[in-house]
Amino acid sequence: MKRLGAPVLIAALALGSTACKDFLDVNTNPNAPTNTSANNYLAPMMHWLATSEQFDGRFVGRYTQMWMLPSLTVGGTPSNWDRHGYEPTSDNAAQLYRDVYWSFGINLSNMIEQSEAEQRWDLAGAGYVLRAWGWLKLTDLHGDIIVKEAFTPDKFRFSFDNQEFAYQEVLRLLDQGIEDLSRTDGVISPTYIAVGDKLFNGSTTQWLKFAWGLKAMALNHFSNKTSYDPTAVIAAVDKSFTSNADEALFTYPAVDATPSNDHNFWSVERQNLGSYRQTTFIVGLMDGTQYPGAVDPRMSRMLAQDSTGVYHGLDPNVGYGSVTSERPWNLWGFYGTGAPPAGTRGRYLFDKRPKFPIMTYAQLQFIKAEAALNMGDHGTAREAYVNGVSAHIDFVNERNAEIANPNITPISASEKQAFLDNPAIAPATITLSHIMGQKLIAQFGWAFVEAWMDMRRYHYTDMDPVAGTQVFRGYTLPTNYYPDNGEKPVQRIRPRYNSDYVWNRDELDKITPVSGLALDYHTSPMWITERPL
After folding, report:
1. Which helix H or strand E contains 137, and what residues bound it?
2. pTM, whole model, 2 decimals?
3. Residues 6 or more apart in contact with residue 101 via CB below 8 angstroms
4. Beta strand 67-68 with 277-278: parallel, antiparallel or unpaired?
5. d(CA 394, CA 389)
6. Which of 186, 204, 184, 183 is nearest to 194 (CA)?
């Protein structure tokens, strides 16, 4: 969102009309085209669709206690993010911000406009869905975002729009995308889209299902609003993925000698997870602590053991304990924090080989289960919930099969059935804490924004009135909040530092009811999660 500086512009104008043209011509490459076909825009956007949230997941995942970055000193102070804080002059946790405004940015606008001009309604529809995805992710992370003026040329300051408007725009774009993807006139060509579509290989049917899944997700976020319509959520889910075979999965080539070029962000080769450790919260959801008598067969295929073969997690309020043998290994399965030992193989999503999820069937089934429970349809809620757990067990097997780590065996049919038959997991009456706990497990390591949205919708520690437990069983808020928080939990991530706190401060100050310049702005509740007065 940076623009050409005034001194440079004035200098260019001072050269005169002929000199100005010559000066600007240095940016034209005579050996490369200055425009491209619409389908060529898509491939890099598909990469960032899969990758951006992983970058930010290093930080958002600590808010949700999927994992933490512990101090290596016993009793050391937890990191800022583990204390619901942030890094004031850093662009950490702003990769989605960068990619929605820049990597997608004008490129996506050009793709949509060019596709419409050529009556390529399928590609235009996919473009509208991608734009909706971007706004949904950004507003769920940051609350107020720049929408109306985001791609306006010749602007130096950009006004923020409130979250209510951002959600209206998400739903409008999804409806437009669904309308275009449903058209059969014009120039419809799956082969043309497939050139850049590394997600659905040009399938309009799959793009439509993806759009309906995003709409279900967005509509379900209104659970604290009087306008919440669970029937609309369920209808949208039912138009989306019907099995694991439909899922939005991205395959990283993982062949470049430089892993950062084309490897999964969580791969052993990229070394982005060496210091991270699973938490007591995620382990407690799987080892029988929170669902007594039900040890989850996925635990040994997703999480890491300690040196004694036991599954331990770390408490963000405590960090490393004094008993070395009880400290969990990292998710690649070794104790160190630096480069992994030669030959180290990953597990689940933490390797270069598995297809990486953008949206899954299991995730959508849990959304359907929550909506059904909210409208009192217990039969539909239980059916969707069991579908979700079952599908995610299959998903774990599918991802581990792609890795082919000889130390990881598939979950057998008998293990799966025994788990699904366990009344601690699937009682006759499903409760909210069953649904949200199992959804969090199914989103471990990838759907960081949706998992955090779930936690904020239930205000981290809301109680499940039926189960008599927290909705998120075992989750604990920090006992040593980041100093700027004022003893309040985090609710949003501040806008990208170098995009707004350096260049757009006057507009940040206009955000209401809490200024974006306030030190505790990140604790200001978002509109979508606030209950009506």
Report:
1. helix 121-142
2. 0.92
3. 1, 146, 150, 499
4. antiparallel
5. 9
6. 204
Over the stretch 295-325, which tens digit does the pLDDT of each residue have? 999 999 999 988 788 999 999 988 777 677 7
Contact assessment for residue 220 and residue 231, using Cβ atoms and an 8 Å cutoff: no
Cis peptide before 513 (omega within 30 of 0): yes
β-bridge mates for residue 314, sequence order = 279
Tell me, what DSSP letter sits at residue 248?
E
330 in Cβ contact with 67 (< 8 Å):
no
Helix (H), strand (E), coil (C) string for 252-296 = CCCCCCCHHHHCCCCCHHHCCCCCCEEEHHHHHCCCCCCCCCCCC
pLDDT at 470 over 80: yes
Q: What string of H, E and C letters represents the secondary structure of 201-246?
A: CCCHHHHHHHHHHHHHHHHHHHHHCCCCCHHHHHHHHHCCCCCHHH
Distance CA 317, CA 322 (A): 14
CB 39 within 8 A of CB 466: no
Integer CA distances (angstroms), 402 to 31, 48, 265, 395, 436, in order: 41, 22, 16, 11, 27
Distance CA 125, CA 115 (A): 9
| Residue closest to 524 by CA, chosen among 489, 499, 479 | 489
- How far is it, in rounded angstroms, from Cα 287 to Cα 157? 51
- Cα–Cα dist 59/87, whole Å: 10
Q: 360-370: string of b/e by CB count within 10 Å (b at 16+)? A: bbbbbbbbbbb
Position of tokens 């808020």? 477
The full length of the chain comes to 533
pLDDT tens-place string over residues 69-90: 987 677 778 899 999 999 999 9
